[in-house]
Amino acid sequence: MPETILTRNLVARIDSCINEARLASNVEHSGMAGTLRELFVAKLMAPLLPSGFCLGKGKVIDRTGKLSSETHVVIYNKSRFSPLLFDEITGIFPVESVTYAIEVKTTVTATEIHDAINKARALRLLLGGNQVRFVLFAFNSDVTTPEADLKRIQSYQAGDLFPPVNVYCSVGMGYCYHDQTKWVVASRTAGRAEVVGLLIGISNTLVCSGNRMTNDLPGMYLAWWTAPPPK
Q1: DSSP codes, the chain
Q2: Whole-number pLDDT of residue 32
Q3: How many CB atoms lie within 10 A of CB 227?
Q4: Pairing outcome for strands 53-61 and 98-108
């Protein structure tokens, strides 16, 4: 299927976000990590959210009162359960309303991957937490090949029955997700395909979880690289 104008627009937005993130990461400042997360949210995620879904940050809570670790980005359905917000986006989110928890890293390293896995495991311990998909997104990586980058996100979780971090994307390296039976890997990077694949997968999943027809997916309009929605 040929590239569409929507695809070109998305790739241009991805390039703009990555360029700004790399400029920001060159400045040594304690707030830069937050700036990168804000770029990710505003330029990549917000324009693709279906109606009814919102972006936040904070902690996820279950009905027993147990809390997750601090979460960089939460995608939740406001029509299911209202969060307790302390400002426009920061708050505590009932797990039943949360579809995605996203960890955004400047540069992913072995230490950062283990940190994300521990956060994902804490989320999974919540009652209903296993229904939330956990994404690790990185603007850079400390390894040099897509194979090495994708292999370690899988190998570090080999002992888990279901990988706690079940979606992974590293700019310039690749994109993979676990479909509850196996890892699906797309490591080609032409035209920012790895980031396009991640955004399509998230957007398609949100549409499906919103109880719309599963054959009416936004990924159909972002042609030349499409991924089936994670189950």
Answers
A1: ----HHHHHHHHHHHHHHHHHHHHHTS--TTHHHHHHHHIIIIIIGGGPPTTEEEEEEEEE-TT--B---EEEEEEETTT---EESSSSEEEEEGGGEEEEEEEEEEE-HHHHHHHHHHHHHHHTSTTGGGSEEEEEEEEESSS-HHHHHHHHHHTTTTSSS-SS-EEEETTTEEEEE-SSSEEEE---GGGHHHHHHHHHHHHHHHHHTT--TT--GGGGSTTS--PPP-
A2: 62
A3: 20
A4: unpaired
Do 230 and 169 meet the contact criterion of CB atoms below 8 Å apart? no
Amino acid at site 42: A
User: 134-145 pLDDT, tens per residue?
Assistant: 999 999 899 999
The list of the chain residues with pLDDT below 70 reads 1-3, 26-33, 187-189, 210-231
Partnered with residue 134 across adjacent β-strands are 101
> Which amino acid does the sequence have at 161?
L
- How far is residue 210's CA from residue 102's CA, in Å, rounded to a whole number? 19
Question: Can you tell me which residue has the tokens 């090949």?
Answer: 145
Counting every residue written for the chain, the total comes to 231
